[in-house]
Amino acid sequence: MNGPPPASRPPGPALSRRGVLLGALAGAGAATLTGCATPLGAGLLKTESAPDAVEYWNLFGGGDGVRMQQIQDAFRKANPGTPLKAITLAWGDPYYTKLSLATVGEEPPDVAVSHLTRMKTLVDAGLLQELRPEDLARHGMAAENFNQRAWQAGLVDGRTYAIPLDTHPFVLFYNTDICQQAGLLDPNGQLKPITGEAAFVDALARAKRVTGRYGATHGINADPASPWRFFQTLYSQLEGEILADNGTRIVLDDAKAARVLDYLRALTVEQGLIPSGADYPGAIAMFATGQAGFHLNGEWEISTFQTAKMPFGMTLVPNIFGGPHAVQADSHTLILPARPDLDQARLDRALHFVRSVLDQSLTWAEGGHVPTWLPFAESEAYRRLSPQSSYAAAADTAVYDPPGWYSGSGSNFENVIGSAVGAVEGGQLTARAAIAQIRSQLSVLARTPSPV
Amino acid sequence: MATTIPAADRTRTGPGSAPPGGADHRTRQGRPALLFLTPFLALYLLFIIGPALYGLVMSFFHTSMVRPGLGEFAGLDNYAEALGSSDFWWAIWHTVWFTILTTPPLVVLALVFALLAERVRRGRWFFRLAFFLPYVLPSAVVALIWMWIYTPELGLLSRTVDTLGGTAPNWLGDPAWAMVSLAVTTVWWTLGFNFVLYLAGLQDVPRDLYEASAIDGAGPWQQIRRITLPLLTRTTTLVVVLQVIASLKVFDQMYIMTSGGPNFSTRSALQYVFDVGFTDYRTGYAAAASTLFFLLVLAASAVWLVLTRRPESEV
């Protein structure tokens, strides 16, 4: 500021400039106050824009997001009297923190999506509305209408807090052209069953000979979730458990974990059947461009490979260790966050919307998820849906995260184990070192009193 | 911008010469200044000071993300837990290591490029723009570009190294390389800011000093050492302080490019706070960890200020 000092300036213009500024401020204030009709105004004054609306939060992007939009549009068309306000937030922490805080702040959505493995923490925190059988019955929903594995896994002390929409297992994608050349398909063009450690190695090795690069891919770099899912699948096939007593006790079986980790190390570091260095998108790209015959991932990536117009099939992750078949999975559930002003009409509007989503299970199942709503899951329409129905059995052998305040989809529990498993697959840790690391990091979490 | 030449001015008038005007002048300006500052101060109190104080209070409680209120009083439990946690100390070390890797190149290269860009006779605008341009990109975009470059086997860098006959490491997947790769990305991205500060500093070096020294027979290297660098001391102090603080604040690059991996080897202090606060819902403990980290940044800044203030007062 190099102008003359204010005292030497005639007072007139200075005052008028101040006046203009003050006037502008007052104007802006008035505009804010009259803005009740806007969401901002409604939020500030705690009035609702439409009292008979259903507010719905979800975490779906990509192909899932598109399909959920279709489901919402169909609801709007069928229920013109019930405005639907749908909000999509990014999966993981951004979603669950906002959902928790909105509920704590007594401004929750009427209906929200939650992973089954995250829902129990929300119940423990007292953030969810219990769904009583008589209320569900008014909308034609009862326990026997749902896949029992998902339904039972979602109960807390025998009470229902969540309606499972699907089961989303870890599955095996295969490139039908490559597998054909490798002699891995049956006459119907389906993958021949693979059972046992040696058979899986052999299948990957044969695919590798065809591609010249790799047998299979899955995300390892910057992607602890995929190694976690693969580990949990195989470890559960050995009937291994990780946590007990609601997460306060670690019951990791070192021998079983070492067997799985040694096997994963053989597939990656020792035999080079799976690349150690691929990240999540890289693993997808390698499979989509024919550099690998197999891809291990959640079934939700079906849309990616359909868009890539590549020849592929999907099936259960093989039973490698010979125990009962088991596969890592989670479920999307619909929950009603607790709210003090819940009345019968609001509850019924919310449950009506939940039922409407279940009725559109076909749209949802096209995205790869195994439906839990039995009227559709047992229908001919679903059986004809290919390749989606070819791994439907995964819903019955699904293994969910063990309960604990620090476990669940995208949790630090999965991150701790997935990081150590990824380090084994990347060749940086031995099985023994990885188990020691998992133990020490989990024991910190197990010792910590639950924050909920 | 300032029209005076602070460094040169100081050498000419000498230390201790008071600015024109005086105490009387200052008080007369005080009230209108406060009035103009009010909107900023209100927002600053509401969104910076307020939450910071609330966080400090929270760090003494077992506050939970999913429970209303502060929760049970914890005393110093949260601090004791953080100080005794190896994960916390590793995260602090990762942040410090990142700062050590990024600060020297970001200061030295910025100076070198500013000197070079200043010497260019034609198309000077192009070089200024070229060095500054990456800085305007958002962190997510930078992360995406460099993740492609670092992609094993298919990526630009790995391909190039392989073509030249070497074996490319797994840039982001090998714990030995991941932090270095993140540092290289960061240098490319944020160099432009320091570059501009140095360019501005160079504009303040009076031309006549160069002319006089040239007449006395000084070469370009001597001019840089004896004239440019000493007169840029204040700029360098500023650049280093800003850079250390910016590097200690690192979060985005790791969060997007490595998720703190492989196997937690690039988890920064802020990501640790994020993990325990948001993923584990333990906001009280996260507040304690972040307070400890704040003290570290404060200590680093204080040490630097003490170290650099002394030589300056001797000028």
Description of the molecule:
The complex is a heterodimer of chains A (452) and B (315). Chain A has 452 residues and is of the alpha/beta class. Chain A has two domains: 54-164 and 332-371, D-Maltodextrin-Binding Protein, domain 2, CATH 3.40.190.10; 169-329 and 398-447, Periplasmic binding protein-like II (D-Maltodextrin-Binding Protein, domain 2, 3-Layer(aba) Sandwich), CATH 3.40.190. Chain A is 46% helix and 13% strand. Chain A has 19 helices and 14 strands. In chain A, the strands form three sheets. In chain A, strands 5, 6, 9, 10, 11, 13 and 14 form a seven-stranded mixed beta sheet that branches. The longest helix of chain A has 23 residues, at 11-33. Chain A is globular. Chain A starts with 10 loop residues before the first helix and ends in a 5-residue tail after the last helix. Mean pLDDT of chain A is 89; it is low at 1-15 and 29-39. Chain B has 14 helices and no strands. The two termini of chain B are 24 Å apart. Chain B has helices at 6-13, 23-58, 77-83, 86-119, 124-132, 139-150, 156-163, 175-203, 207-215, 220-231, 233-248, 252-257, 269-279, 283-314. Residues 1-22 of chain B have low confidence and may be disordered. Helices cover 73% and strands 0% of the residues of chain B. Chain B has 315 residues and is mainly alpha-helical. Chain B has a single domain, classed as Orthogonal Bundle (MetI-like fold). The chains are: A alpha/beta (452), B mainly alpha (315). Chain A binds chain B through residues 2, 5-7, 93, 97, 100-101, 104, 121-122, 125, 127, 220-224, 275-279, 282, 285, 405-406, 410-412, 415, 419-420, 422-423, 426, 428-429, 437, 441, 444-445, 448-449, 451-452, and chain B through 3, 21, 25, 28-29, 32, 62, 64-68, 85, 87, 147, 151-154, 170, 172-175, 257-259, 261-264, 274-276, 278-282, 284. Chain A: This is Sugar ABC transporter substrate-binding protein. Chain A: It comes from Plantactinospora endophytica. Chain B: The chain crosses the membrane at residues 34-57, 96-117, 129-149, 176-200, 231-251, 285-307.
